[in-house]
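Q: Could you fold this chain for me?
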Amino acid sequence: MKQEFQTEFPQEIESFFYQKIKKGTQSIVINFYIEFKKPLAANIKLEKIYFHNQESPVQEITPKDFKSSFLQSNKKEDLIMDKNPAKEYGNKAPVVQKSKFDLKSNEAVLEYTKDGKTLFYKIANVLEKPLR
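A: Sure. Below is the predicted structure, expressed as structure tokens.
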């Protein structure tokens, strides 16, 4: 499905960035932030962010600041490798998730509705901000 991207967002974005937070030894949470210069207009609703082959709903922190969270797991399944193929029977095939969009690692897509119509805005050059 080929999506049509908007060339401009209907409101001025001050910044967008992401931060990684380690959760134990097995996973990382990526928080994606969007900050606007003025509070978001009433006829615009942020729906989802597509980033790193995942999608996540957008949450409002303040009328100008929004966040979306992604969980990345490092946990690897144990595979049984044996010269007898019958002993490998319980192995599961890897699950490959195909994203709705073909994005580079520093790109994201913001899905939003304006006056009830669903639109998509591509964000390029997303930077990682280290935690303070």
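A (continued): The chain has a mean pLDDT of 85.
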